[in-house]
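Write out this protein's structure.
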Amino acid sequence: MEKKQSFFSALKDDVVRGLSPGRLRNKPRSRSESPARMTSFLRRKKPSGGSSMIERSGSLRPVMEGPDPDEAEIGASKRAGAGIGKWVKDQLTRTPSMASTDGYNRRSDMRLLLGVMGAPLAPVHVSAADPLPHICIKNTPIETSSAQYILQQYTAASGGINLQNSVKNAYAMGKLKMLASEFESATRVVKNRNSASAAESGGFVLWQMNPDMWYVELSVGGSKVHAGCNGKLVWRHTPWLGAHSAKGPPRPLRRALQGLDPRTTAAVFADAKCIGEKRINGEECFILKLCADPQTLKSRSEGPAEIIRHVLFGYFSQRTGLLVHMEDSHLTRIQTSGGDAVYWETTINSFLDDYRPVEGIMIAHSGRSVVTLFRFGETAMSHTKTRMEEAWTIEEVAFNIPGLSMDCFIPPADLRSGSIGETCELHQEGGAKGPIVIAAHSAKVAAL
């Protein structure tokens, strides 16, 4: 009995000492602050006797290590450590699913939203240094030459190739709202009735620098996701998985393609084909289709998880030449040992609005995304579908920022190689689970 009491005493002491909300609030301001406060750090001078504010140490600490922020407020209003004790009790007694069959759990929703919509990547590897292909009519399929012409028009409408090539680095800050709006299984449909109050608000900060380096911080509802690329390696840090690298070649951040980086967007669609026309929100658009090659898909697969396809569609306005809609879909097959294969299909539809020039380059200052996660396979009536939504606005954009260096894109020191078998956890959980429980784990597919 004494050993059991000493174990819980030591555990509580460790938690209070390392994860106290008061300790987090008293920490000096750093890169882990809210994105709204980060807009001023680029203008600060280098403090004497220390490193620049723009540099960061190799290790990143997750924000949601301790209690839920709502519990922290309750604990602060009552006796010291009350929130900590409740959190420790919850961690020792809760089920691994963190989801309730009666409805969506807030923490599970955040894990699902940030895992899928936090920092998705483009399907192919591109380099900003690669020039766009010249339009070639001779011995070129009409679908390819048409796509090249559309990209030339898009580049011109976005500000021109010379102006875009003059950009060495870029910074953007925005606000966003995320919501898990609907869940559907073979037997029931759960909808979020009060979407206004259920939506989680937050923001993000994005840095980019040539060649092919980027770093993003996204904070929503008290949880935070970091992701970055140093030109050779893509990594991501989440509160529930820590820091880990992504398999396959380095790829651009999809969030940057949503109207923030015209040059990289044109490079991504350089090998696309024009497959037709379609009206999007009253705009007649050309449709460009890009498919990831089998070698890239194979390099991104891991263990029992195999990525079968990843397709990207771009809808370019015939009137303005700008990208107004983007859709990508990838299908993952997970073969369980001694069981049927399970398939996960993730589809992201993004609409881009409010294009305005920033230093001569056209930037989309608002937009929204609708994400659908569809799980099927095992049996005919075991499918599940989850719908999530995101709306964002861009607050600040700047180019060629002095002081931005390669040190800002260094991966964390505690980085683990590979995606640590995230998709493997999907079938290792096993057992009888309700549809809501399955949805809570579907975010693990996104890291691929």
